[in-house]
Each structure stands twice: as C-alpha cells, then as structure tokens.
Design a protein that fits this description.
alpha/beta, D-Maltodextrin-Binding Protein, domain 2, 2 domains, 15 helices, globular
Length: about 375
C-alpha cells in the first residue's frame, strides 16, 4: 500500500511528463497550410482535353509547391477575365483573342504566362448539307459555346474578311457545348457550329460527319494561353511561377504517355467519362479528343521556339494582334511584349524541374 507522499510524487511525475510531451508537440514545426488558388477555364465539362490543368491536381504537383488548387468552369474567356478582375479566381485559361482584347479594348492588364495552343477552331457544318463555303453562311444561324468565348471575335473577323457582316448577315446563338450544341445542329436550330478542335472531334465521335471551314492562317497563330492579371504577378510572383511550373510538368507528363493521362483523368474525374458505348470505343473517343488537344499544344510549342514548355514568342502574339486589327476585331494595338509576363527568366524557371522523374512516372503510369 503506497503512502500519500509516494502517490503525490507519482502524480507530479505524470503531470511533468504530460507537460514535456505537450511542449515537444508545440515545439515541432507545424505543416504550413496550403494556399488556396482558383483557376477558371471556359468549358462546361472539365474533360480529358485540359491535362495541364487537371493532372497537376491528380499528381500532386501543385500540392507539393504549397498550393490547394481548384479548377472551375466558366462561360468563356470573357467570364474568366471578369472573374479575375472581380477577385473570384487567380488565373484563367484564355483564348488569345480575349487576352488581346482585354489589353487593347478594355485597358485590363491581363498577361499571358504560358502558350498552350494554336488556333484550331473551325466552323463545322453537316458534311452532306448545302453549306460548302464561307459565303454560304450568309443568312444562317451559327451556334457557339457562349457569346463570351474567345471564338466570337475570331468568327466575326473570319466572316468580315469574307464579305459577310457578322452583326447583320448571320445570327450567333449560344448553344453550350457537347450534346446540346450537336442537337441544335441536327435539328436545324443552327446551321453551323463554331468550336475549338477537340469539340469538333467530339461531334464526330457522336457519329456526325462534318465539313469544317476555317481560315488556314489560324493554324500559325497562338490561341489558348494560360494567364493572370499583372497585379497578381506583382503581388505574388512565387505563386505565379509555382502554378505555371506545375502546368509545365503536367504538359510533359501528358505528352509522354497520353493513355496514362486518360486513365488518370477518368479515375479522378469519373463524371467526365463518356457513356453510350463499350469500353474500347469510349477509350477511342477520348483519345481522339486528347490527341487533338496535344497536337494544338505541340503546335504552340513549335511556334514558340520548340525548346521550353509554355514559352511564348511576342512576335507570334504580334501577328495575332495584327490579324485582329486587319479584320476589324480590335481598333488599336499595343506592344506585343506587353501582352505577356515580363519577369526575366520566367519560362526558364517554370521548366526548372526534374524532367527525368516526370518522364519516368509517365512511362510507368503508377497510380492509374
């Protein structure tokens, strides 16, 4: 039987040990909370065609940099810019037309961070229908994802340069993307669809044979551009660099093993997986979509020097700006380099990662 004195010593010992343990826990470095970041992309469904925005989340690239990134869908480049100006998002995936118009027409300091595609848009019409040339679009209704997408000024310039007044000779109708847009075409609510390359492939995946009209000059001009506001670059340059680097790593991963990128996307975004056919056909459909996007990304890489992922050549954006001025889409120009991030060494910094590790991970496709 222990004495009150011994019991007191034991109690004191327990309290002392508890205090030491608590001190050790408090003394340990606490994990730094992840900083929330939001990216807007103009689409209805975040499908497999945005690997540089979805794979960094799946593969933990942005988490490893200290950021908790969320990608949200919006109605197009215009809405993405509006969301950035309003402070609701930090970055947006933009069409080059939207980027240029923001600077030249609205005096909004939007800056391109990474070139992620060339113009692969086109006007899709029924292959066996009466519309054979651009001139045949006069008097027709043309469907487009939204009236705020960067494809609108592109389409208007295309029509105007071919003698069609886009404000009176045609009617533009927002159809959304995917099945609703295709149904509008098949039911003759619209007679043409102005969409980006992978969307047009999607319509053909659904069994609709199309003739695609486009200006051949588009394929040598920049389009999809990852961007943000100049004030965001000034306020947190480290974040801008880290987010762009994650996108660059994901680009390399997807280009190395597209099938793995597809498997990872389906696993982590199951609602975006197509339905209505057997597994082999579904894989074929989405691989066609992804391939169309990867070809556009490859075109941008080659157009911008072919050395660094995400590089942007000011002269290419200058050509795009001149193209828009010529077709009446914009009324003035700005120095092309002012459209892009001006931080010295930025593109080198976002390519400064372990390329071999990314290549190896893509080839083994662990986690799919």
């Amino acid at each position: 039987m222990s004495s009150p004195l011994c019991s007191g010593f034991r109690a004191f010992g327990f309290l002392f040990l508890a205090a030491i343990t608590a001190f050790q826990v408090l003394a340990q470095p606490q994990a730094k909370p992840l900083k929330p970041v939001t990216i807007a992309v103009g689409t209805q469904v975040l499908n497999v065609t945005y690997p540089w925005l979805t794979l960094p989340i799946v593969l933990g690239y942005w988490r490893d940099e200290g950021y908790d990134v969320k990608v949200i869908t919006v109605g197009g480049s215009l809405q993405g810019i509006q969301q950035m100006v309003g402070g609701a998002v930090d970055f947006a995936q933009l069409n080059s037309t939207g980027l240029i118009q923001a600077n030249t027409e609205n005096n909004i300091a939007v800056r391109g961070l990474m070139g992620t595609g060339v113009i692969d848009w086109g006007v899709g019409v029924m292959q066996d229908g009466p519309i054979k040339t651009v001139a045949d679009l006069k008097g027709k209704k043309i469907g487009i994802f939204s009236l705020g997408t960067g494809g609108v000024p592109l389409l208007k310039g295309y029509l105007r340069s071919n003698g069609i007044n886009p404000d009176s000779d045609v009617q533009l109708i927002a159809t959304g993307a995917g099945a609703p847009a295709l149904e509008a075409l098949k039911n003759d609510r619209v007679q043409a669809l102005m969409f980006w390359g992978s969307a047009l492939v999607g319509f053909e995946n659904a069994g609709t044979k199309m003739r695609v009209l486009f200006d051949p000059a588009w394929r040598a001009l920049p389009d999809f551009t990852f961007g943000t506001l100049q004030k965001t670059i000034d306020a947190d340059p480290a974040m801008v660099e880290a987010i762009s680097r994650g996108a660059a790593k994901a680009t390399l991963f997807a280009q190395t093993n597209p099938m793995c990128a597809l498997k990872l996307h389906w696993k982590n975004y199951p609602s975006s997986k197509p339905t209505g056919a057997n597994e082999t056909t579904l894989v074929s459909w989405d691989m066609r979509l992804l391939d169309a996007q990867l070809q556009s990304m490859k075109g941008a890489f080659e157009m911008n020097g072919g050395k660094l992922i995400g590089a942007m050549d000011p002269t290419a954006y200058g050509r795009m700006q001149d193209f828009m001025l010529k077709d009446g889409t914009i009324k003035r120009t700005v120095p092309p380099e002012s459209l892009l991030i001006s931080k010295p060494g930025f593109v080198d910094a976002i390519n400064r990662f372990d390329h071999k590790a990314v290549l190896d991970a893509a080839k083994t496709c662990s986690g799919a």
